[in-house]
Amino acid sequence: MAAKPLFIILCSGEREKLQMAAMIGSVAAVSDRPVELFVSMNAILAFEKDKSAEQRYHGGHFAKAFAAKGAPDPVDLLGQGKMLGEMKIWACTMVLDVQGWSMANLVDDVFDGEMGLTKFLSDAEDGELITL
Amino acid sequence: MAERKTIDARGAYCPGPLMELIAALKLSQVGDELEVLSSDKGSAADIPEWVEKVGHQMVGTTAHDGYWSVVIRKAK
Fold first, then answer.
1. pTM of the model
2. Which of B25, B32, B36, B37 is most deeply packed, by most CB within 10 A?
3. Residue A101: HSE in the Cβ half-sphere, 13 Å Cα cutoff
């Protein structure tokens, strides 16, 4: 039996939650489980194009530990998950509008496009939903 | 003819070793063996779980000083 698709809403801009979303999403995607990730609120700021890792990530104890020990970069990990598994990543239309951004402001080769929350929640009725 | 390839993922944290393995699997043929060297304890336990879930074959796991060797065979 095919696994239920996994839907993830990522709102936090903290490295710890970005890391967890990237780990869950990429591992599920390469384990034959379709994944859709909706990036909204402060999380979208981590995906701004042309930022260094120091500018991109902030957080608490583990954010510092991940940086010091060279844990996988969450944005890179999501890119690997997309390349090796079935994963779609959507930017929240509302926060793009508020921020005055378009898709051109976001890192290349990660997002499949922008989407509204209503459509994402509708799609998520077919699977399991995690919010971070 | 089946080949054996070693992926040295020592120093990489979860899920880095698994992702490196999967990338190498994409380029391998059915029957090939891949050995992952991982210093990440979680990956040494997780890779066999993933192999079983997706339908490849575990050949074995060996503990060394400070790292593990996990060998799998591509089955599909």
1. 0.91
2. B36
3. 22
Instruction: Quote the minimal CA–CA distance from A103 to chain B in Å.
Output: 27
The rounded mean pLDDT for chain B is 95
Closest residue in B to A2 (Cα–Cα): B54
Label residue B8 exposed, middle or buried (CB < 10 Å: 0-12, 13-18, 19+): middle
Extract the residue ranges of chain A whose pLDDT is less than 70.
1
What are the structural domains of chain B?
A: 4-59 (3.30.110.40)
pLDDT of residue A2: 75
For chain A, the three-class secondary structure string (H helix, E strand, C coil) is CCCCCEEEEECCCEHHHHHHHHHHHHHHHCCCCCEEEEECHHHHHHHECCCCHHHHCECCHHHHHHHHHCCCCHHHHHHHHHHHCCEEEEEEHHHHHHHCCCHHHECCCCCCEEECHHHHHHHHCCCEEEEC
B10 is catalytic: no
- Mean pLDDT score across all residues of chain A: 96
